[in-house]
């Protein structure tokens, strides 16, 4: 048996709280149908009896307050929305309780950008964390000591689970169910709730947005030139000459400011341009490759696959308007 505390955080989304409750409750039903005892005791846990969500659109009644929970086995941190700094302040009373429960052996299941709140407690320092691609830059600027994972949807480290992507928390719940009760139960839940159990990364969904809140005007000027000229063919030396900067020093500044090397940044911009052409245009794939400045079609195919986890043909088939 495991006791699960689903936190009713301020600024949490109703859907992530309710989905967690419904899926975990149904696991007990599945066990009952198999003639087995329930495995989860699930409670909504808050700071007070009732919490308003979505600017008062919904209200959730907590089964217990954190003061009444001396020990729990699993803590679910829901997806949050709004201004993250304000959210930290509103939910600060949870922090010491969360730290205490983790030190006593509790697992923490953090849904999508709920990781902003978890990171604010210090529990993610030095650990891996998956984050929604659209929130990556903000997360990195706020928590530079946390290791962001881009290629996988889910991270699992020292009893802390995180996930990237809006509704990928459904995959995280399946993952946790599998750890607790085995693959068979996870597959059953996948089938009953029609969740794609094989979804492993968020690369096909990413829209590249460069980090620009860094305060280095020359790096920003380089970013703007790269983004405004996705079809141009130029070397890094030529870019540095245009900006009147030394290559070695500027490459270090660029990497520090954006999190990408100059070469990676150019690749990401060209891939993003190619994605738009595949989604809306009628040009054949080789034409698109030449248009983004690659003469070696195989080289660009590898670059595209690296950043999207799809071939150009598969991307067009999946996303073409």
Note down, in words, how this protein is organized.
Pfam families: DJ-1_PfpI (PF01965), HTH_18 (PF12833). InterPro entries: Class_I_gatase-like, DJ-1/PfpI, Homeodomain-like_sf, HTH_AraC, HTH_AraC-typ_CS. The chain is built from 14 helices and eleven strands. The relative contact order is 0.09. It is globular, with a radius of gyration of 23 Å. The strands form three sheets. A seven-stranded mixed β-sheet has the order 5-2-1-6-7-11-10. It has a two-stranded antiparallel ribbon with strand order 3-4. The protein has two domains: 2-205, 3-Layer(aba) Sandwich (Rossmann fold); 217-319, Arc Repressor Mutant, subunit A, CATH 1.10.10. It has helices at residues 14-33, 84-91, 93-103, 115-120, 136-142, 169-181, 183-193, 217-228, 236-243, 247-258, 262-280, 285-291, 297-308, 312-319, and strands at residues 2-7, 40-46, 50-53, 58-61, 64-65, 74-77, 107-110, 128-130, 147-149, 154-157, 160-163. The model has no long low-confidence stretch (mean pLDDT 92).
């Amino acid at each position: 048996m495991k006791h699960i505390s689903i936190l009713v955080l301020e600024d949490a989304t109703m859907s992530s709280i309710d989905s967690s409750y419904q899926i975990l409750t149904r696991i007990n039903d599945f066990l009952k149908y198999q003639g087995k005892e329930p495995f989860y005791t699930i409670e909504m846990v808050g700071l007070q009896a009732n919490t308003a969500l979505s600017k008062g659109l919904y209200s959730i009644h907590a089964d217990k307050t954190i003061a009444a929970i001396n020990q729990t086995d699993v803590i679910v941190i829901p997806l949050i929305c709004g201004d993250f700094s304000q959210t930290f302040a509103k939910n600060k009373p949870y922090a010491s309780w969360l730290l205490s429960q983790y030190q006593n052996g509790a697992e923490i299941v953090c849904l999508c950008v709920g990781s902003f709140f978890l990171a604010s407690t210090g529990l993610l320092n030095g650990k891996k964390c998956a984050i929604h691609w659209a929130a990556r830059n903000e997360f990195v600027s706020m928590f530079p000591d946390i290791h962001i994972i881009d290629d996988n949807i889910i991270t699992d480290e020292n009893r802390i689970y995180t996930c990237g992507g809006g509704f990928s928390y459904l995959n995280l719940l399946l993952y946790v169910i599998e750890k607790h009760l085995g693959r068979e139960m996870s597959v059953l839940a996948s089938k009953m709730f029609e969740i794609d159990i094989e979804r492993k990364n968020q690369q096909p969904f990413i829209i590249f947005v460069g980090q620009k809140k860094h305060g280095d005007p020359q790096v920003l000027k380089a970013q703007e030139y790269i983004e405004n000229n996705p079809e141009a063919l130029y070397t890094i030396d030529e870019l540095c000459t245009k900006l009147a900067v030394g290559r070695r020093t500027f490459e270090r500044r660029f990497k520090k400011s954006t999190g990408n090397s100059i070469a990676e940044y150019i690749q990401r911009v060209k891939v993003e341009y190619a994605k738009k052409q595949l989604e809306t245009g009628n040009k054949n794939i080789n034409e698109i490759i030449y248009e983004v400045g690659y003469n070696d079609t195989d080289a660009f195919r590898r670059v595209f696959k690296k950043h999207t986890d799809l071939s150009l043909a598969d991307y067009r088939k999946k996303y073409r308007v």
